[in-house]
# Entry
Amino acid sequence: MLDFDGLKDKIKGKVIEIGFQKFNESMDKNKLPAKLDEIIGSVFENRVESVCRVIAQAIALYENLLEQQEKAHNETLEQREAEKWWIYQKRQELEQVQNGLEVILSKCTIV
# Structure
């Protein structure tokens, strides 16, 4: 197209100049820092909430593991106590048999 004395470039320049003026006018200098603070605060709060949720899940997982270990430990203790009682009973039975045998032997040697 025909460009009369750089008219096209002058129009572009004026449009850009007016655009920047409008942009600057629309940007209230007092609201921008507050809006940035609000955005940063929101992002930070979301991150903190996410971290807290992950930490809470980790704590719950470890508590569950501790409960399982304690249960297994208690079951092992109960089993060991039952085994000890069984061994004690068998020992008592064997002592009774031994005493019976000694009585029988003493009767045999007397004769």
